[in-house]
Amino acid sequence: MTARDPDHRPGRAAAPRAVAKEAETLRAELDRHSYLYHVEARPQISDAQFDELFRRLQELERDHPDLITPDSPTQRVGAEPLEKLETVEHVAPMLSLDSTQDANEVRRFHDRVAKLLGEGIEPRYMLQPKLDGASIELVYEQGVLARAVTRGNGRAGEAVTMNVRTIASVPLRLRTEARPAPDLLALRGEVMMYISDFQNFNARLVERGAEPYASPRNSAAGAVRQLDSSITASRRLDVIVYDVLAADGTRFATDSAGVQAIREWGFKVPERTSVARSVEEILAYQASFAQVRDDLDYEIDGVVIKLDDLGARAAMGTTSHHPRWALAYKFPPRQEVTRIDKIDVQVGRTGVLTPVALLRPVVVGGVTVSRASLHNREELKRKDLREGDTVRIQRAGDVIPQVVEVVEKGAHRAAPFEMPSECPACGSRVVEDGPRTVCPNRFGCPAQLKGRIVHFSARDALDIEGLGDETANLLVESGFVRELAGLFDVTPEQLMELEGFAEKSAHALVAAIHARKVPELARFLIALGIPEVGVSVARDLAGQFGDFERIRAASREELEAVPGIGPRMSEAITDFFADARNQGAIFAVLARGVRPQSSEPVRTDLPDLGAAVFTGTLPVARVVAEDAWRRVGGKATGSVSKKTVFVVAGDDPGSKLEKAEKLGVEVLDFEGFVARLRELGGDLEV
Length: 686
Ligand code: IVH
What we know:
The chain is of the alpha+beta class and 686 residues long. It has 6 domains: 17-75, Helix Hairpins; 99-330, DNA ligase/mRNA capping enzyme (D-amino Acid Aminotransferase, Chain A, domain 1); 335-347 and 354-410 and 423-434, CATH 2.40.50.140; 446-514, 5' to 3' exonuclease, C-terminal subdomain (DNA polymerase, domain 1); 521-591, Orthogonal Bundle (DNA polymerase, domain 1), CATH 1.10.150.20; 611-679, Rossmann fold. Strands 12, 13, 14, 15, 16, 17 and 18 form a 7-stranded antiparallel sheet that branches. A 5-stranded mixed sheet has the order 2-11-10-3-9. Bound molecules: 2-(butylsulfanyl)adenosine (IVH). Residues 95-97, 128, 130-131, 135, 190, 242-243, 270, 304, 323, 326, 328 line the site of 2-(butylsulfanyl)adenosine.
């Protein structure tokens, strides 16, 4: 080795075996101190000492790159930016939770559970805070973090592994002092951003003229879905894990045992987890959390009640949406009292006129609220809200703040507010559409164009950095942009005429606009602002059709074949594409060279070929082989049973091969597997 190593400097590098040993010791030490610091919050060494160990390991790895392991603490950052996030299936479905705010619903839930369990068996519940973060699946293979996947639609999500690797409280390798690592372990947790970090982060965004995030959850979700993991690494995030989705070779009798194992494998678990046997205990638990909620540095939106006995859970089963054995008991929305200084009218991108209360700023659950939508004239009339009134406002999750009621009428009360009869932006006569007031001048009203530009460039759409509310306003008012596609014709010289732009920022914005000319298909769909099509529908459409032209040409029946798309949505989508003016606007955007990316559609018409098990060392990564099998309609699991359709055995297969032979399950070698795939129209590149 020494002789072959061109970088070897005689007299400097230690003997390789000693170096390897030192690197291994450093890794173990760094992992341990990182765990003590980030998970247990009881550091044993100073940051400077930690950095010194870290630098020493970096030095060894730099001199001996063959020593680098994927789970080395030095490998948390530095992954190459991706072009797009891959969609991958979850090991086990990530269901939602049924939820309520009503104590009587909790009683009924308990009665249902008790009845299903039968006479004499008393339900025992696991109680946890309901963490308001971004849901994530963590998959460990042979104890090493193999992938991290967002919840997505519950069946498949986006692989954000390189981003999650940057989060220090996520072990890259399971701790195994207290219990061994299963071959395959899938866990579910929540990516959290602490409220204090969120506030700092938002303040910096606002300073830079960027759009702030609505909540710590949105901000955490945004950080996790970055294509460049160095951006994720620059945000302070944490992952709290609460559920074992699958653990190969390990069976837990109860959820409590599962959570204990999660703790032992080195994860942060929810604080103040508790158990209860009665509704009274559940209600008391929720009430006590409601009291401490405002003192926590992270958002919780209720508590989760889960049957502890996993056997009983299996007996109760799940609906397609949520398990029958769990319930989220949510807190009522946060409320504050403040004053309406003024009532303004805003025209949105769809032409709807919305009365907006401009409020005396007040902090509600960590976010400063200075305006609240008053929805429409009927709502305004019903609540009889007027300028100068003191009102109760509320904020539920990241929903736009609402005014609940008048607490105290203003002295010398103002006259009732009337909606204008003309659009405040373009002067067109407004029309009434049920309770809504609408400006009918769809393609001529500057406020609607401005709304479309903001929507087009928003974070979930084309994500054009530096193109927010104010700039959109300036572009429309100056006449530089007269239709959506005109955005692509804006020049740095034009921008420099606008307030707040200098040469550098003008070039940067033009570059940012042009950098988005090859958007992911889902983002492009969101950007178009098709009625009824939000983030998740857009992702489903993109996943199912794979190509913009196919979506545009799809019939209502074809659209409704996509799970989750009903008649209302299919009608909205086909109407949108049938509208001549929309066609013109889309044509103009595509004519500027915008090319939404196509992707392989996910096929749903596949037969269910059953579950295969992959074991031993294969010529490709196990996940790659599993994905190839899934793409032709199969499933992949970690343990062999009579239902297993076949086992693919690589080198050093171990106990799964023995079990397959014992049960008489077919065993294929890798070549046999590839041949089987090809028969089914699939393939695998080695
Ligand atoms: S249990 C299928 N426990 O809340 C049941 N979920 O609104 C497994 N969540 O999507 C979930 N804290 O991401 C569970 N302590 C907790 C939780 C929790 C937050 C999330 C979860 C779920 C969402 C439902």
